Amino acid sequence: MTVIITAGAIVMGTTACKNNEQKEVVESPVSGIRKSSWGQADGQPVDLYTLTNSKGTIVKITNYGGIITSFVTRDKNDSASSIVIGFDSIAQYLQSPPYFGAIIGRYGNRIGGGKFSIGDQSYTLARNNGENHLHGGVKGFDKVIWTAGPVVDSIAALSLSYLSKDGEEGYPGNLQVTVKYTLTDNDELKIEYDATTDKPTPVNLTNHSYFNLTGDVQSTILDHQLQIDANGYTPVDSGLIPTGEIRAVAGTPFDFTSSHTIGSRIDSVEGGYDHNWVLNSKGASMQKVATLNDPVSGRYVEVFTTEPGLQFYSGNFLDGKFINHTGTAVKLRTALCLETQHFPDSPNKKDFPSTILEPGQKYHSETIYKVGRNRETGKQGNSE
Ligand code: GLA
């Protein structure tokens, strides 16, 4: 056993994992942040930031893509492991995994036909998903190097900024973006997104973490239980572009107004869940909109957001090509995403809430993933 004394925490390590990765368990944790070099991307150095809170929860984030590489929490038996998919080195992130843990922008989700108009001006975007534009294009915010702000050892917060230039991936305007991650002592991972522009442009920022609350991807997420506070969802066409309709979830497999096991109705949804839920909160204020619960590990995650929509994606395209930091292949439906957002294809849907940011306006959005655990299997909402 090794004892590593860091700026933010006293970390005791044991080598318990298959790939000899050090599984970190924090004894006497102290909130803070630690920076370490993490190799290179695009010929530039990148770093890994380790945020620790007083409960011993650990979140690791790299300034490449603003990616959350690891989110270590304890289960009901006090065993610590990461509840998100991630890798231990930058090399795997450079092989274009499907957005594991990354910041997504300028536009999270799809824009139909890769085009839209603002006033009389029409724009053509990179088409990187059939004929559609997905998650900001060929080189979206998930693949750029962000500039980290100054860090204070004793504060578990990381501010990342990026200037997306006029014309990048086809978007108009210079967009200055800041994303701030904060890990609170209340076990909340808070993400604040801010942006300004010098020309009208669509903006829809999110994070693409894939959760498996068991702490491994040996098992699927089909036994996880999900509740979403949404009475409606946006049905899609074969290219996953919303038709424009907002349909009631009542009486359908999309009704998660009360908690349901994900696998119980997934087979009646063609291709699985990959849809936008229209949240009852309407994005009016910061509200709890969803709870994901794993009865086996006792872990749960509560999602709070200021956004009007939530994309629940059940990992339908995961194919085993990538190996998680536990040494296990990430196969079909072994992880799921809960992406807070405005609705897909909003620039082409006049009845959806607008995603156009104008010069002089300030884009601001917040999302919190709050982790907890139940000592007693099957119950939820019993935060410690
Ligand atoms: C999003 C989309 C999915 C898929 C994944 C990445 O969540 O909604 O259709 O493209 O990203 O694989």
Summarize this entry quickly:
This protein is an all-beta fold and 384 residues long.
Question: Can you characterise this structure?
Answer:
The chain is an all-beta fold and 384 residues long. The chain contains 1 helix and 31 strands. The chain has one helix spanning 90-93, and strands spanning 2-5, 10-14, 23-26, 32-41, 44-52, 58-62, 68-74, 80-82, 103-104, 110-111, 115-118, 121-124, 133-134, 147-148, 157-164, 175-183, 188-197, 201-202, 206-207, 210-211, 225-228, 230-234, 247-248, 260-261, 274-279, 287-293, 299-305, 309-313, 336-341, 356-357, 363-373. It has a 9-stranded antiparallel sheet, with no helix packed on it. The chain is globular and about 60 Å long. The model is unreliable at 1-23 (pLDDT under 50). Bound molecules: alpha-D-galactopyranose.
Number of helices: 1
Rg result? 20 Å
Considering DSSP H and I runs of 4 or more, what fraction of the residues is helical? Answer: under 10%
What fraction of residues sit in β-strands?
Answer: 35-45%
First and last CA, distance = 29 Å
> Which compounds are bound in this model?
alpha-D-galactopyranose
Secondary-structure-derived class = mainly beta
Number of beta-strand segments: 31
Spatial strand sequence of the major β-sheet: 14-15-16-17-31-27-26-21-24
The biggest beta sheet, please? 9 strands, antiparallel
Name the poorly predicted regions. Answer: 1-23
Could you report the average pLDDT, rounded to the nearest whole number? 92
The backbone outline, from C-alpha atoms, is globular
